[in-house]
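Hey, I'm writing a tutorial for new members on how sequence and structure tokens pair up, and I'd like a real worked example in the thread rather than a made-up one. If someone can provide the structure for the chain below, I'll link this post from the tutorial.
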Amino acid sequence: MILLAAPLDEIEIGLIKKMLDGGWKNAAIQFYFNTPERPVNNGRISEIKGGGRGRGVPAATQYELDEFLDHHPLTIARLGKDEPETPIQEPTATQFAVTEALKLDVSADPLSDDIFGDPSLTEVYLELRIAAHECSAMGHNTLGDIAQRVEAFAAALPEDSRDTTVHRIWMRGNKLRMLLGAHDQVAELPDMHLAKLDVACAEALRAVVQAFNVFAALSPKAAELDQLGLGPANKAAVTVSLEQIEEVIDDAANISTDEALDVLVEGINEAKAADDTAFGERQVALVGRSTSNFFTTAIVTGYRLVRDAIGAGVGAVWTKIKDNAATGVAGAIGAAINAKAPALMEFLSANYAAISSFLVTSHANPAVQQFLEFIVKVLGFA
């Protein structure tokens, strides 16, 4: 039996298109896609170049291509002896990407990736959406102080699931869990209590939370978030570090899209409002990881600019840094880097100490700290 080679998927075609746009030769592209199980010859790449294959597939972004190349076995094999592999984002958290204008944005991570592969989850999502919108429709007179929370949750459940992310749904749904839990703790008390809800409000909220719990159990991504943990001491430390990083987040408006900034601000506010339950601990864990992902993306982007400016000698520079040797980049190169991304470099240099402290407290990948130190030392920021 002759086994037919698997075709290139749309992600691969998009990456190849971006490489072709950048002037890559067919032979060079082949090395990154060839495997013993699936050979990729010149003809396939020429078909993509000429529009005969993958005509409707858009080219990948530069950020997507950089991510692909940096973690490809061919690239890793060529790293210098002291040069670490480029760190990746924490997968169980909000993902960020970089636009062609070098602004950080929320990465497309559609919930539909979960839903379209599981018809039963599609039905559960629709039931959750109905429950949330019906509860929201009860209005402020019935829902009182939680009306805004319910409305926000309903807004995270659009008709087209491709317009939302599991992290947004989970964070807002998890907050509703906390509100209902706080109510249940005091529901039987005869006296008034800030956490106590009107009976009709509480039951409507309970229906939403129950539907959310079913959804969270069936969605692989949401189920992962339900397993997050920090421990009381680490929860307190991460909460404090998130509060301390708020001023830096305000600065991030210069290097991020409005959506990315909104995700960061909402997350920090939710972490500050998290209670002492397991739900609160998970909320803080998600926000800490998501914020760490934002800084990881900013730092990796800055590093790539520095690395590209240094060129083939970047491995030797890593060794010099390890040996505490002088590492400043020539003025013209440094100026060129700053000219290409002035806002990003200003953000990293001005907030170096705060970002560094946050990365340690939030238990970010230690490699992220290494890359920040590399940028700072090579460009003479500190």
